[in-house]
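User: Before I run my own analysis I want an independent prediction to cross-check against. Here's the chain; please return only the structure tokens and, at the end, one sentence I can use as a sanity check.
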Amino acid sequence: MIEADMRKQNGMMPGNVQTTLGTYLFDCLKQEGLTDIFGIPGDYNFTLLDELERYKGLRFINGRNELNAGYAADAYARLKGMSALITTFGVGEMSACNAIAGASSEHIPIIHIVGAPPSMAQQAHKLMHHTLMDGNYDVFRKVYEPITAYTAVLTPENAQMEIPAAIAMAKQQRKPVYLVVATDLVMKPITLRSVPMPPRPSTAQQTLQAAMERAKQLLGQAQRPVLLVDVKTSRFHLQEPVRKLAEALNLPVAATVFGKGGFDESHKQFIGIYAGAFGSQTVRRTVENSDCIIAVGLLWADSNTANFTAKLNPARTIEIQPDRVKIGEAEYPKIMAEDMLKALQNSGYRQQTDVVQGPFPYDQAKGSPDELLKAEAYYPRLQQMLKEDDIIVAETGTFFYGLSQIRLPRGAAYIAQGGWQSIGYATPASFGASVAEPARRVLLFTGDGSLQLTAQEISSMLSHGCKPIIFVLNNYGYTIEKYLNVKTEHQKYNQVPNWSYTKLAEAFGGEAFTAFVRSNAQLDEAIRQAESECRNKLCIIEMVAADPMDAPEYMLNMRNYMERQEKQQQS
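Assistant: Structure tokens:
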């Protein structure tokens, strides 16, 4: 058995038959724990897909288009650690390009595999379909270079070197990578070669010691230290060392909007979401009045800092990134985050006062049963229905900002595109999440405008037996865009046609539990029924907003801030 495994790892199959390029590629993906590959068929990837159908342990998940398949692969990777996507050359990979760019922005490792025209046609610069009709077969790889961590043209001669290198780069940088292979090379045997594995990045111990000396000085003088968790905490799998640090030092823990879900929100030391001037003022005071902030995986982006209204004192901040540390103006390269977190954990510091929690925005129920739906009343209801280990997928827009303030139960996963913010992401992402974790409950929160971009992926959910609970907020258009544009009102371009959202499953040839709700009582009853029905079928709850401009407090604060900024610019 051991000898057989060794032969397989070295590119050999029983009977002294070398493994093919396609089989070796799938072997490498399977070794990373993948069980599914997303994609769309096209004539240049037929050989790959035929090989995949014969391959044991991986299945092909066919989406409705390449963009949606990329979004689904994105969510799958967030839950499983990595994902793979197969598209065809040119038309397919360009359709997926937005999803891959989003994965790059969000630090999501996707192995994007592209089936290309036959190698002889490429070498002869023949004008093949799905090309720019100029004989250039490298143009699309060059498009992908800036939005991926690694690109390679696979051949039987380089496969054993390039495939592991690409996967290693995806894991190290938490970014997508791009591999293209000509359709006639997939079944060719690979050339065996001894390929040394590159050394894993390690911490420079003297640099770590210098960083810790400065960090201990800050902590030793601190009376009100706080731990701030941001997006790279979860992307680089630092949740456990961060939790141990928080408990060892007895620190209050806040998360940013992007970093939501990176720390257990049911933990007694969690105090809420830090969102600058737009979020909880209690959390804002705690963070901004701190005399020592330990920030893990910080990303200083506009939508993560409430239009840069977040104020952290850099002289009092210990900023821990995946491979470096910054304290004040001093930078300490080549320090792995986990090593710095462990060193801080063992620093001997411990805050003596107890952490004071809350209040959390949605802990108190609001709104009488007969009142029409308003954000201040339905967000507490949505928080109340969440269960341990749920997967919550929030669409860009109204739900993104409202759900950021919800308190997640223990073990819950939270999926949202905080930085890239491509509307339409969440519906196919929910499909990907359902494929990745079929035993967990998936809840999708999307708006009417966003759903209209990618609604066809409900068809994929139905065909694969996925049973998420889908909440559609019908507020008659792109309400988030209406809030962002403070210069004009009643923009026609931010309106969308009114669909019959509860009939989508029927239109796609499937069955679903559906509810159309306008009041708090109707929402309560729909939630109660959906919690039972979701065991057997997909659920769609359409929530009709009484006021199209109704929004959570975060957005109201954001709008007021932007209006003040606009007036200042005009004066």
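Sanity check: The longest strand covers residues 110-116.
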